[in-house]
Amino acid sequence: MPNINVNGTTLFYSDDGPKDAPVLVLSHSLFFDHKMFAHQIEHLSKTIRIISYDDRDQGQSARSELTSVDMDTHTSDAIALIEALELGPCFFAGNSMGGFIALRLAARRPDLLKGCIVLGSSGELEYKLADFSPLVEGLSAQGTEPFIDTLMYIMFGDDYLADNSRESERKYWRDHMLKLGTDIARSADGVIHRTGVLEELQGCKVPMLVLAGEQDHAYEVPLSENITKTVANGQMFVIPKAGHSIALEQPEIVNRYIADFISSHSL
């Protein structure tokens, strides 16, 4: 799996699927890496070329000197990645933080997109800032270990957390989060202090698929509804028994929606 130097950083990415197929770029959530889309890569790459990457300061991508990794920087990285790999116009999907990036791409560089897929995200200012600010401060000082149960609750829905058949997967992501250092707080700070993007999206014509988790503890269903009401060509679905990490928690349903969306907008 290669690295690429773009926008003053080095991003790690994978390239799966037929090279002459429609292209889907996947952008992960905070506290995760590109592997959160393992289910999508395994299933969809049979007929879709999938580029999944780790955001700067996360996963296997380069660390930066930024005190807060803001969404505009992440968006510029995504634009540079798409342009450097000559992927546009492509489909772009993002879960949570990746959704913030996807929305900014749709608003600012619609020429690069055939369609935008937003999962468990928001186009607004952080409405839980009072709750999340102390958590980010704690992460900066102590790392993730003292807050791991809180992070698991935020990132996953009740059904997923209680499902014994998913225990090994949950353990993988719990261990992944436990290994994150204090520098993850820089990315978390950028997430919770992001600017709103709904005004930029007013009337946006990029086809948009918005998926909301029924049990999302971070960004509830009305925030997804607000995105759909703002853009000119959006459709929204609520995914049952899914929390914040929709693509990971309910992969079969998500894969079907994504495949149908790409098939409908590939021409």
UniProtKB/TrEMBL annotation:
**What keywords does the record list, in alphabetical order?**
Hydrolase
SUPFAM superfamilies (alphabetical): alpha/beta-Hydrolases
Residues in the signal sequence:
none
Q: Which InterPro entries match?
A: AB_hydrolase_fold, AB_hydrolase_sf, Hydrolase_4
Q: What does the record list as coiled-coil region(s)?
A: none
Q: Name one GO molecular function term.
A: hydrolase activity
Show where the Serine aminopeptidase S33 domain sits.
Answer: 23-250
Keyword Metal-binding attributed: no
Name under which the protein is recorded: Alpha/beta fold hydrolase
